[in-house]
Design brief:
By secondary structure, the chain is an all-alpha fold. The protein contains 14 helices and no strands. The protein has two domains: about 180 residues, no CATH class; about 100 residues, no CATH class. Helix content is about 65%, strand content about 0%.
Length: about 300
């Protein structure tokens, strides 16, 4: 792979991580569960109280930043023990929804250390980053000391899971999907399309692709949200025309519920799309996307009316 696409991919990942860490609303809700691990899941030890972070700032600066920080990352105030209990419950007697939460924890933790290191390194060498990438990162607020500290805090908590446990997250995505957890089809498909690609059954991938497209066309807000921020929709068995329709339908729906939010969301999505290097839709494709977007929008309101 040439350096250009690789740098762009890293920039998108860093921007997304920085954007997430700048918003405490991204926190995973804390759930108190009993400590009852199945035998297949080892009782991992708590991470050391002071593991060595990657090239940290001065001790005084770190202490000052840590004392002023809101709850770190997507875990809120959950401790390493809390995360361990969630995962144990997911593997054990937990519901499909609890399996989904456990899968999300492991999925995040599988990449937490590298994400924290990438954020820290990028912050420290930002002057050496190509100008176009630097401007892109700056448009998301840049990589701040607070975000790096929060990412490193999450990475330390993730040390409670060993490699063998992290490698089993596909089992949890499958359990959540087979149990009918909301949004599990898209999560399982994402796993099989990326980290779990080597073990993916093509028939299952085809089934999930059809299912998530059906959900989107039926106005399912969770599926539409995923498509709205998706850069490579073809990996999910969706044409660019369909993805454009789902994005526009989602923006209309979000704009109705929170006036003014659609403009900022559209701006964020546009920043991500600039790195896709895909040509614009043809006039015919645009007309098809607009017609489908209207159908999806109408389907969403039909779903909403049924729930009332």
């Amino acid at each position: 792979m040439s350096k250009g696409p690789w740098i762009a991919a890293v920039a998108i990942a860093l921007a997304g991580a920085g954007w997430m860490y700048s918003r405490s609303s991204a926190s995973v809700p804390s759930t108190a569960v009993p400590l009852s691990a199945p035998e297949a899941l080892p009782q991992a030890a708590e991470p050391s109280a002071a593991p060595t972070p990657v090239s940290p700032p001065s001790a005084a600066a770190s202490a000052s930043a840590a004392s002023a920080m809101p709850p770190p990352g997507p875990f809120g105030n959950d401790s390493a023990a809390d995360l361990l209990r969630k995962v144990q419950l997911g593997f054990g007697s937990g519901s499909a929804q609890e399996a989904q939460k456990a899968a999300n924890v492991l999925q995040f933790c599988a990449h937490a250390a590298k994400a924290a290191e990438a954020m820290q390194v990028t912050r420290d060498i930002i002057s050496l980053v190509p100008e176009s990438i630097r401007k892109f990162l700056d448009s998301f607020g840049g990589i701040t000391n607070e975000q790096v500290d929060r990412a490193q805090s999450d990475a330390r908590r993730c040390q409670v899971f060993d490699d063998s446990t992290l490698a089993r997250r596909g089992e949890l995505f499958q359990k959540a999907y087979e149990g009918g957890a909301p949004g599990a089809a898209m999560s399982y498909l994402t796993w099989l399309t990326h980290d779990g690609k080597a073990e993916a059954d093509p028939a299952m991938v085809d089934k999930l692709q059809a299912e998530v497209r059906q959900l989107a066309q039926a106005g399912d807000l969770g599926a539409l949200t995923s498509y709205a921020f998706m850069v490579d929709s073809q990996a999910y068995g969706t044409s660019r025309t369909e993805r454009e329709a789902y994005k526009e339908a989602w923006l209309c729906i979000v704009g109705e519920g929170n006036p003014g939010s659609a403009a900022s969301s559209r701006e964020l999505i546009a920043k991500l799309e600039r790195f896709s290097k895909l040509p614009p839709l043809t006039p015919e494709q645009q007309r098809e996307a607009e017609a489908l977007a209207q159908q999806v929008y109408d389907a969403y309101h039909r779903r909403s009316n049924k729930k009332e």
